[in-house]
């Protein structure tokens, strides 16, 4: 294996060309297990941890190493290492951290594209799809939608699913997938190029592990079928992990995500709902809030049927969520600054009042 096989990022490529860094280890994070990391370089696999300085100097948990990151490390044994720096990322897929005020959580780094998997039936949800598209646009990376378990429906029903997606996101590429259809597997594999990095996203039990098994042409990932009664499954991927396919493409599998909270990137929402932005440009007032104002192009488009009311409702909900996250982030940073000033003031007081 060589470093190109692992999909060298621009920052990693620059690292290899810097002779002053020859004493350090350049490796890619292939798995994250809580406080331990699995690294891969051109020669071997390492079990690694991060330095205390790195752990406590970050302002947000998304700055810690994620699957797909290229890192600068120091070997600490034959198969162990210590990570001292995360190299600059070409992209970062992240979401709002669950139950953590004003924080985000990394999903994967240095990606080229995401495959969003939704199964036919109860899992298929356009609003949820738009959440995935928003975090992909924030990364920023492109996305392809995979509709899985299409062997359970007719071709006409599959086309109906595709039509629903295209009605809201005309330019989004949509592919069908069945583990029993080699042609559908081959079509997805053809979308993946050697040395490029791809992420598989989706809820629990939608077929992400089944898809990767099919692409790898073996059963290295354990899968569980979803219940016929409620069409729900338990996720079988418990951590994020990187694989290299036979064609050289790099794939990162992720656990099923129940919550996909978006962060503070307003431009990502604009990119996700581009059709709404185009209509909004025709509003009479540039600061129109689309809440009944005179000359509102959005309301006129909804009334005429040009704009789906469901699509605008999805956008409006995500917009409010994005604003709430931005407010939380500002409050968090203001609190941290106040605590920093208090600490410095206390330190100065102790210094000036020594006995």
Automatic annotation (TrEMBL):
<keyword id="KW-0378">Hydrolase</keyword>
<dbReference type="GO" id="GO:0042274">
    <property type="term" value="P:ribosomal small subunit biogenesis"/>
</dbReference>
<keyword id="KW-0699">rRNA-binding</keyword>
<dbReference type="Pfam" id="PF03193">
    <property type="entry name" value="RsgA_GTPase"/>
</dbReference>
<dbReference type="GO" id="GO:0046872">
    <property type="term" value="F:metal ion binding"/>
</dbReference>
<keyword id="KW-0862">Zinc</keyword>
<keyword id="KW-0547">Nucleotide-binding</keyword>
<protein>
    <recommendedName>
        <fullName>Small ribosomal subunit biogenesis GTPase RsgA</fullName>
        <ecNumber>3.6.1.-</ecNumber>
    </recommendedName>
</protein>
<keyword id="KW-0690">Ribosome biogenesis</keyword>
<dbReference type="GO" id="GO:0019843">
    <property type="term" value="F:rRNA binding"/>
</dbReference>
<feature type="binding site">
    <location>
        <position position="290"/>
    </location>
    <ligand>
        <name>Zn(2+)</name>
    </ligand>
</feature>
<dbReference type="InterPro" id="IPR030378">
    <property type="entry name" value="G_CP_dom"/>
</dbReference>
<feature type="binding site">
    <location>
        <position position="288"/>
    </location>
    <ligand>
        <name>Zn(2+)</name>
    </ligand>
</feature>
<dbReference type="GO" id="GO:0005737">
    <property type="term" value="C:cytoplasm"/>
</dbReference>
<keyword id="KW-0342">GTP-binding</keyword>
<keyword id="KW-0963">Cytoplasm</keyword>
<feature type="domain" description="EngC GTPase">
    <location>
        <begin position="109"/>
        <end position="258"/>
    </location>
</feature>
<feature type="domain" description="CP-type G">
    <location>
        <begin position="90"/>
        <end position="260"/>
    </location>
</feature>
<feature type="binding site">
    <location>
        <position position="296"/>
    </location>
    <ligand>
        <name>Zn(2+)</name>
    </ligand>
</feature>
<comment type="function">
    <text>One of several proteins that assist in the late maturation steps of the functional core of the 30S ribosomal subunit. Helps release RbfA from mature subunits. May play a role in the assembly of ribosomal proteins into the subunit. Circularly permuted GTPase that catalyzes slow GTP hydrolysis, GTPase activity is stimulated by the 30S ribosomal subunit.</text>
</comment>
<keyword id="KW-0694">RNA-binding</keyword>
<dbReference type="GO" id="GO:0003924">
    <property type="term" value="F:GTPase activity"/>
</dbReference>
<keyword id="KW-0479">Metal-binding</keyword>
<dbReference type="InterPro" id="IPR004881">
    <property type="entry name" value="Ribosome_biogen_GTPase_RsgA"/>
</dbReference>
<feature type="binding site">
    <location>
        <position position="283"/>
    </location>
    <ligand>
        <name>Zn(2+)</name>
    </ligand>
</feature>
<dbReference type="InterPro" id="IPR010914">
    <property type="entry name" value="RsgA_GTPase_dom"/>
</dbReference>
<comment type="similarity">
    <text>Belongs to the TRAFAC class YlqF/YawG GTPase family. RsgA subfamily.</text>
</comment>
<dbReference type="InterPro" id="IPR027417">
    <property type="entry name" value="P-loop_NTPase"/>
</dbReference>
<feature type="binding site">
    <location>
        <begin position="148"/>
        <end position="151"/>
    </location>
    <ligand>
        <name>GTP</name>
    </ligand>
</feature>
<feature type="binding site">
    <location>
        <begin position="202"/>
        <end position="210"/>
    </location>
    <ligand>
        <name>GTP</name>
    </ligand>
</feature>
<comment type="subunit">
    <text>Monomer. Associates with 30S ribosomal subunit, binds 16S rRNA.</text>
</comment>
<dbReference type="GO" id="GO:0005525">
    <property type="term" value="F:GTP binding"/>
</dbReference>
């Amino acid at each position: 294996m060589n470093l190109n096989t692992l999909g060298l990022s621009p920052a990693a490529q620059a690292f290899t060309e810097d002779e002053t860094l020859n004493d350090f280890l350049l490796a890619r994070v292939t798995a994250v297990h809580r406080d331990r990391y699995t690294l891969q370089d051109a020669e071997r696999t390492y079990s690694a941890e991060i330095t205390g300085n790195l752990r406590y100097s970050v302002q947000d948990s998304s700055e810690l190493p994620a699957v797909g990151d290229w890192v600068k490390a120091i070997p600490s044994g034959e198969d162990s290492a210590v990570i001292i720096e995360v190299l600059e990322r070409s992209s970062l897929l992240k979401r709002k951290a669950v139950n953590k005020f004003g924080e985000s959580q990394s999903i994967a780094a240095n990606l080229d594209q995401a495959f969003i998997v939704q199964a036919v039936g109860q899992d298929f949800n356009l609003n949820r799809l738009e959440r995935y598209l928003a975090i992909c646009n924030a990364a920023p990376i492109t996305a392809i939608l995979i509709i899985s378990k299409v062997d359970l429906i007719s071709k006409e029903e599959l086309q109906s699913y595709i039509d629903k997606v295209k009605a809201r996101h005309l330019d989004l590429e949509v592919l069908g997938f069945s583990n029993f259809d080699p042609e559908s597997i081959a079509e997805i594999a053809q979308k993946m190029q050697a040395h490029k990095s791809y992420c598989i996203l989706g809820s629990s039990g939608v077929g992400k592990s089944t898809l990767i098994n099919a692409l790898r042409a073996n059963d290295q990932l354990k899968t569980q079928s979803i219940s016929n009664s409620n069409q729900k499954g338990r996720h079988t991927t418990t951590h994020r992990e990187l694989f290299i396919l036979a064609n050289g493409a790099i794939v990162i599998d992720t656990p099923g995500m129940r919550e996909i909270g978006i962060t503070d990137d307003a431009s990502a929402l604009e990119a996700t709902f581009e059709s709404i932005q185009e209509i909004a440009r025709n509003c009479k007032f540039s600061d129109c809030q689309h809440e009944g104002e005179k000359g509102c192009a959005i309301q006129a488009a909804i009334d005429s049927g040009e704009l789906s009311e469901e699509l605008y409702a999805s956008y409006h909900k995500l917009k409010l969520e994005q604003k709430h996250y931005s407010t939380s982030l500002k409050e968090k940073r203001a609190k941290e600054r106040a605590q920093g000033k208090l600490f410095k003031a206390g330190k100065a007081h102790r210094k000036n009042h020594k006995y």
